[in-house]
Design a protein that fits this description.
Glutathione S-transferase Yfyf (Class Pi), Chain A, domain 2; 11 helices; alpha+beta; 3-stranded antiparallel beta sheet; 3 domains; Glutaredoxin; single chain
Length: 287
């Protein structure tokens, strides 16, 4: 069974992040196909996912293509009930679906004023009254759900509802938006989630920034977990094969005076961005 998922730039495409988390965070294998936003490459990619016009777009194993992350979540939940995309408890499941639906349709001011940008964190973005109203609504929803669930996530264990709010957490972190301690703790949980860290690391490795998302606000360090310090290096390396593909190594990085090899620049650079986000690399690093 093979799923194919079309996505845009990982650093910027918030809807693509939602779609990919529905696979990676729940252990469902998927083959991703990416294209740069605002280029001819994206509509060209989507030709293979007709009639989808936006990302994420999913091609099912039988060749059927579908778009819309909420529909993708429901389809995956029906095909993989063991994955736990929605809570097993009926009450929490109802809450999770309501939260995901409101996220899918709302918070336009926040989205417009603070487009997702995982490459940078701003010290201040002068949020408008409409943005502040969106933040207040988010705090109400998150507090309501987390009080019922009693955990770090909205509805018990990490669910599709949390995947839908991951880009919102990224916006709050990336633009230093004002929220209370409870909401800030929920944002921090997202930034530390292994799948989120892997997605952000791949985005940092994808190439040059998109000018469309550049803002003139003052910047400060990304507020998520700080990665191990690593640099591009020459070989040879301790490992002869890439930890991800098993192919011979051609590109190298250095951590703590040790050299590690990878089969291509992207494998190296996604590891360079956040070495501890990658279990297969961590295994050889600690060996």
């Amino acid at each position: 069974m093979t799923y194919d998922l079309a996505i845009g730039d990982r650093s910027y495409s918030s809807w693509s992040l939602r779609g990919w988390l529905l696979f990676d965070a729940f252990g469902i294998p998927v083959q991703t196909h990416s294209a740069r936003l605002y280029t001819e490459a994206l509509p060209k990619l989507l030709e293979g996912f007709f009639p989808a016009r936006t990302v994420p777009a999913l091609r099912l194993p039988d060749g059927t293509a579908m778009a819309e992350s909420l529909a993708i979540a429901e389809e995956l939940a029906s095909r993989h009930p063991e994955a736990g995309l929605w809570p097993a408890d009926p009450g929490l499941r109802a809450i999770a679906r309501a939260l995901a639906a409101e996220m899918h349709a709302g918070f336009g001011a926040l989205r417009s004023h603070c487009p997702m940008n995982l490459r940078v964190s701003y010290e201040d973005c002068a949020p408008t009254e409409a943005v502040l109203a969106d933040l207040a609504r988010l705090e109400v929803l998150w507090a309501w759900a987390r009080e019922r669930s009693g955990g770090d996530w909205l509805c018990g264990a990490y669910s599709a509802a949390d995947a839908f709010f991951a880009p919102v957490a990224a916006r709050i972190a990336g633009y230093n938006l004002p929220v209370g301690p409870e909401a800030a703790a929920y944002v921090a949980a997202h930034l530390a989630h292994p799948s989120f860290r892997r997605w952000r690391a791949m985005g940092l490795a994808e190439g040059a920034p998109q000018d469309f998302y550049r803002r003139d606000y003052p910047t400060w360090p990304w507020p998520g977990p700080q990665p191990l310090a690593a640099t591009v290096s020459e070989g040879p390396s301790e490992n002869a094969t890439c930890p991800y593909s098993g192919k011979p190594v051609t590109d190298f990085l250095r951590i703590d005076g040790r050299r590690f090899g990878f089969c291509n620049p992207f494998c190296r650079d996604k590891t360079l961005a956040d070495p501890e986000a990658w279990p297969k690399f961590v295994a050889i690093y600690h060996s």
